Amino acid sequence: MKKTVTALTLAIGMLLPFTSYAKNNVVVVATGGTIAGAGASSTNSATYTAAKVPVDDLLNAVPQIQNLANVTGVQALQVASESITDKELLTIARKVNELVKKPDVNGVVITHGTDTLEETAYFLSLTVHTDKPIVVVGSMRPPSALSADGPLNLYSAVALAAADSAKGKGVFVLMNDDIFAARDVSKTINIHTDAFVSQWGALGTLVEGKPYWFRNVAKRFNNSSEFNIENIQGDALPIVQIVYGSGNMLPDAYVAYAKAGAKAIIHAGTGNGSVANYIVPTLNQLQQQGVQIIRSSRVPQGFVLRNAEQPDDKYGWVVAHDLNPQKAKLLAALALTKTKDAKEIQRMFWEY
Ligand SMILES: *[C@@H]1O[C@H](CO)[C@@H](O)[C@H](O)[C@H]1NC(C)=O
Ligand SMILES: *[C@@H]1O[C@H](CO)[C@@H](O)[C@H](O)[C@H]1NC(C)=O
Ligand SMILES: *[C@@H]1O[C@H](CO)[C@@H](O)[C@H](O)[C@H]1NC(C)=O
Ligand SMILES: CC(=O)N[C@H]1CO[C@H](CO)[C@@H](O)[C@@H]1O
């Protein structure tokens, strides 16, 4: 008996070097943002320059990530995320797509400014076909500030990208220990480290380098998405612009955007995506000219119901469902690469 146990222990001991030391490969794609920012002093948490620190310095500042995975870095861009255009967005998506296709890459982390982080994450979730974890991460304080949140966010993002349990669950936003689904997370406050929220809740939480899961996403993403970055040519998407709803509006912004070439206008309406009675004729006129009218809401939670506040069937409009205006803008742009049919675009808004 004792002999068998010893033999077994020996056998396991010999196997261990081949099993437990194979770390997953994670690539960090750096794009700039506050997480790569630099302030004049450690008390500058709000006054600093974004997009300064190169990717190698970001990784070297958190040496603990090398215990989680074999981590390498790529500097894709060095921008503050408010200045990201279609060109940069497509550059990021193509870079990530190229990486996930490599057999020796197990997961990808994108460091990104928080301003448009939710947009890039949603775009990746719609256009990159993979079951490998893709994690978009940022920070609210620059690395030079007291209690900078970037290092732990990066550590957690790498842990998530390296986790086998994260496979096939889509694109994530990792901020402040929370694991969010790309489609419904949004930046909701511009001063605190718990800036990102999803009205439907987080998918899970990341504690001491390990993810704990509580939900899945009910909408389409990864391999079941009909959009594919590989089918998008050039550096620009169809033009979609947002008009913010309020009291006492002028119709001029809608008309000007259409004149400038907008193929769809997201109406960030009051309340339930409402449209002022004196604005309705302008929107109907533009719709008849072939501009898609998409009702979203300026209210950060809830959703827009078709044919409730406005007769969308009658007008040929689309509702954005629970997508906020900036996410609706991206889905509309992708939809327009495939169709001009409002009914078909509406189907996409229900499914993604
Ligand atoms: C670490 O990742 C790099 C880049 O993907 C790769 O070239 C290298 O072989 C990896 N190292 C190990 C030990 O797997
Ligand atoms: C996803 O689809 C691509 C082709 O579009 C295929 O190569 C890949 O194996 C698929 N991945 C999974 C996990 O199904
Ligand atoms: C629309 O608005 C009213 C109150 O303003 C609310 O009671 C109703 O549930 C809203 N929701 C939707 C999805 O239309
Ligand atoms: C919603 C969706 O498309 N999920 C798929 C993501 O990829 C995994 C692995 O291929 C599938 O199992 C999911 O169905």
Tell me what you see in this structure.
The protein is an alpha/beta fold and 352 residues long. The chain is 31% helix and 20% strand. It folds into two domains: 21-224, 3-Layer(aba) Sandwich (Rossmann fold); 239-351, Rossmann fold (3-Layer(aba) Sandwich), CATH 3.40.50. The chain has helices at residues 2-19, 55-60, 65-68, 86-100, 117-127, 150-162, 252-259, 280-288, 312-315, 325-336, 342-351; strands spanning 25-32, 70-79, 107-111, 134-137, 171-175, 178-181, 185-187, 196-198, 204-207, 210-213, 240-244, 264-269, 292-297, 318-319. α4 packs across α5, α5 packs parallel to α10 and α10 (325-336) crosses α11. The longest helix is centred in the first third of the chain and has 18 residues, at 2-19. The protein is globular. The relative contact order is 0.11. The site of one 2-acetamido-2-deoxy-beta-D-glucopyranose (NAG) has 7 residues, from loops.
Q: Care to give the gist of this entry?
A:
By secondary structure, the chain is α/β, with parallel strands linked by helices. It has helices at 2-19, 55-60, 65-68, 86-100, 117-127, 150-162, 252-259, 280-288, 312-315, 325-336, 342-351, and strands spanning 25-32, 70-79, 107-111, 134-137, 171-175, 178-181, 185-187, 196-198, 204-207, 210-213, 240-244, 264-269, 292-297, 318-319.
